[in-house]
């Protein structure tokens, strides 16, 4: 079994400093009561595919939530950290190619990968909607990824009431059976345009191509972003 692990995001996730360490120790810190940053520890999780060939594990997930500096009630920022791991025992040896969406060819089952199996992780962010599993497919208004982010590494998300977006943090191609991991630390997501409450939850998807196509998703615990 091979082992493939990332050492963090390929693009600018903010490195945790003294302030984040203090948040872990205290749970809450601020420069003033009106501008408090809130630390949210989140539980680990695991899901095994029905076939038993894919096991997804999420550990060390946490979030640090800050109100908007503009204090307009429509913006806020969350820094998220965690580790998503996939143990894949059976997969074809794919070849990385263009991501052209679903090929709908024999054995693809409308696979949206780009020629190889893949581990992908990120967050589902919603405005004025509770992101239960029955609500994830409702109100989807597209998605963004860290590759779309600015040079500073912040992912900007514009949300209206009732809208939900998928925010991809990172992914890893699965070229052969093995253990694959995506680790991220203080990846910054900035939410704008949501005057009501906002909520988020992590997702990790493992898609295995081939004649025995499978797609396994592990969701995290929903949490409020204020």
Order of helices and strands: EHEEEEEEEEEEEEE
Proportion of residues in helical segments: under 10%
Largest sheet: 8 strands, mixed
Structural class by secondary-structure content = mainly beta
Shape assignment: elongated
Distance between the termini: 43 Å
Number of strands: 14
β-strand amount: over 45%
Mean pLDDT: 75
**Total DSSP helices:** 1
Low-confidence stretches: 5-34, 100-111
For the CA atoms, what is the radius of gyration?
18 Å
How would you sum up this structure, described in words?
With 226 residues, the chain is mostly beta strands. 4% of the residues lie in helices and 48% in strands. The chain is built from one helix and 14 strands, in the order βαβββββββββββββ. The chain has one helix at residues 18-26; strands at 2-5, 28-29, 37-41, 45-48, 54-67, 76-88, 117-127, 140-145, 154-158, 164-174, 178-192, 198-208, 214-219, 223-224. Strands 1, 2, 3, 4, 5, 6, 9 and 11 form an eight-stranded mixed beta sheet that branches. Strands 7, 8, 10, 12, 13 and 14 form a six-stranded mixed beta sheet that branches. A hairpin with an 8-residue loop joins strand 5 and strand 6. The longest helix is centred in the first third of the chain and has 9 residues, at 18-26. The termini are far apart.
């Amino acid at each position: 079994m091979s082992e493939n692990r990332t050492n963090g995001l390929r693009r600018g996730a903010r490195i945790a400093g003294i302030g984040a360490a203090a948040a872990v120790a205290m749970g809450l810190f601020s420069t003033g009561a009106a501008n408090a940053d809130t630390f949210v520890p989140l539980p680990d999780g695991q899901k095994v595919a029905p076939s038993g060939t894919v096991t997804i594990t999420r550990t060390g997930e946490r979030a640090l939530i800050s109100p908007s500096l503009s204090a307009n009630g429509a913006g806020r920022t969350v820094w998220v950290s965690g580790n998503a791991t996939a143990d894949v025992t059976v997969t074809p040896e794919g070849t990385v190619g263009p991501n052209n969406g679903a090929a709908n060819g024999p054995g693809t089952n409308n696979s949206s990968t780009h020629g190889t199996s893949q581990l992908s992780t990120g967050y589902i962010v919603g405005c004025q909607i509770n992101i239960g599993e029955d609500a994830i497919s409702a109100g989807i208004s597209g998605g963004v990824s860290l590759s779309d982010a600015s040079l500073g590494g912040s992912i900007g998300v514009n949300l209206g009431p009732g809208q939900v977006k998928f925010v991809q943090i990172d992914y890893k191609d699965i070229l052969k059976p093995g253990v694959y991991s995506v680790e991220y630390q203080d990846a910054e997501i900035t939410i704008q345009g949501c005057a009501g409450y906002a909520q988020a939850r992590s997702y990790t998807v493992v898609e295995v191509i081939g004649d025995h196509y499978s797609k396994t998703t592990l969701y995290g615990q929903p949490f409020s972003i204020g």
